Amino acid sequence: MKKNILLLVFVSAVLVCCSKKDENIKFEQSRVDVIWYGDPAADGGGLWLKIKETNYKVSNENDIDAKYKINKTNAFVEFKKVGEVTYYTMIGPQKAQGVEIVKFIEF
User: Fold this and answer.
1) What structural domains does the chain harbor?
2) Do residues 104 and 76 make contact, with C-beta atoms less than 8 angstroms apart?
3) What is the pTM of this model?
4) What is the C-alpha to C-alpha distance for residues 63 and 56, in angstroms, rounded to an integer?
5) Dihedral class, residue 91 (left if φ above 0, else alpha if ψ from -120 to 50, else beta)
6) 101 beta partners
7) Within 10 Å of residue 13's Cβ, how many Cβ atoms?
8) How far from chain centre, in Å, is Cα 63?
9) What pLDDT is recorded for position 53?
10) In this structure, which of 9, 69, 90, 97 has its CB flanked by the most CB atoms within 10 Å?
11) Beta bridge mates, 106
12) Under 8 Å between Cβ of 35 and 44
């Protein structure tokens, strides 16, 4: 019986901790330049966003519809900054500041 109660308390604590983490995620919205440097599988640079004069590598570009993968498109995007990401080129791994696109608000 004590083991069941301890298990219930532990599971409840885990669920509470997880829900509080989700509340701290900060999404931003901004008008951005969407820049497509070509398919990474064909040695292209992939999808980038230019936000206020700074370029960010999109970390979830495989989830993005192909209609957004065109060069120099202006869009309004909801995103979150994810810190430093690694991407791969012909000269080896590179690092850049990354963003995850949550959604395109308009195109």
Assistant:
1) 28-106 (2.40.50)
2) yes
3) 0.72
4) 16
5) alpha
6) 79
7) 10
8) 10
9) 93
10) 69
11) 76
12) no
